[in-house]
């Protein structure tokens, strides 16, 4: 059982590690901030590395950090002016993928990038807008992805040898909010954060909506499994664009036991 929770504070450029929270149910699971690593101006996503440490998508490229936060390696810049990183994840073969987007969310300027275990970087999908919520099936043959303005959770075929994605098609149409970050459970269900929807939805492998978790903040940004039995869903929320008195619990991390185990999370092989 992991004792701590790690997440990004996007516009602070920080990678936070939280201590144990004491909340149960749909409560605030923040706990104490055990560490805060400032990794750049804007950080989009992170994942653990197989050999220890983390990979982060930060500023205009990728960085590999050791367990102390020291930079072991940094890619050359791959993002041009007016672009930033957003969400990402690892496939079952150790590749780290992360989406980039226009800072004003202009349509079609987003790209999904891939960092291979040999530290080569390549664009894989283009003409996206707000790439989000990237997870893989346990067997690694399919990827589930969100381009938020589409309003759908999409599935793509994954060629594990080549590291390519193809055949994008909608799996589920999301209502009541905008699909954002996502987590996979051991039964193949997809837990999707709803930006503007104050909720997380679970969709079965056939696209049916099977569960709704209400959240006491409107801008729900992502979710991840952890805790005892790996059945607790940790839910992040955002204060982006809100005034000081709006949505008072926005920016908090919530936790709820959803009674289903999370799928294994892949690590970065770089």
Automatic annotation (TrEMBL):
Cofactor(s) needed: Zn(2+)
Catalytic site: 180 (proton donor/acceptor)
InterPro entries per UniProt: 6-blade_b-propeller_TolB-like, SGL, SMP-30
Signal sequence interval, chain numbering: none
Pfam families xrefs: SGL
Annotated cofactor note: Binds 1 divalent metal cation per subunit.
Residues the entry annotates as binding substrate: 84, 86, 104
MF (Gene Ontology): calcium ion binding; gluconolactonase activity
Stated family: Belongs to the SMP-30/CGR1 family.
Name under which the protein is recorded: Sugar lactone lactonase YvrE
Source organism: Nocardioides perillae
């Amino acid at each position: 059982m992991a004792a701590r929770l790690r997440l990004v504070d996007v516009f602070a450029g920080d990678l936070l590690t939280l201590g144990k929270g004491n909340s149960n149910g749909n409560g605030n699971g923040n706990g104490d901030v055990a560490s805060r690593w400032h990794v750049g101006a804007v950080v989009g996503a992170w994942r653990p590395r197989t050999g220890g440490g983390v990979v982060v998508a930060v500023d205009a490229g990728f960085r590999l950090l050791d367990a102390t936060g020291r930079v072991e390696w940094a890619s050359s810049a791959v993002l041009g002016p007016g672009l930033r990183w957003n969400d990402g994840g690892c496939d079952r073969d150790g590749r780290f993928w992360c989406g980039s987007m226009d800072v004003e969310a202009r349509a079609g300027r987003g790209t999904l990038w891939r960092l291979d275990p040999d530290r080569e970087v390549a664009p894989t999908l283009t003409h996206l807008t707000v790439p989000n919520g990237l997870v893989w099936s346990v067997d690694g043959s399919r990827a589930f992805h969100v381009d938020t303005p589409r309003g759908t959770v999409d599935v793509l075929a994954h060629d594990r040898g080549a590291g390519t994605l193809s055949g994008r098609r909608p799996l589920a149409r999301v209502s009541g909010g905008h699909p954002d970050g996502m987590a996979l459970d051991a039964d193949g269900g997809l837990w999707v954060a709803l930006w503007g929807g104050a909720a997380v939805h679970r969709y079965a492998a056939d696209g049916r909506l099977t569960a709704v978790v209400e959240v006491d903040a409107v801008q729900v940004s992502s979710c991840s499994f952890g805790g005892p039995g790996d059945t607790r869903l940790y839910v992040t929320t955002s204060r982006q664009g809100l005034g000081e008195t709006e949505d008072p619990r926005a920016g908090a991390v919530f936790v709820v036991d959803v009674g289903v185990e999370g799928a294994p999370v892949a690590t970065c092989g770089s």
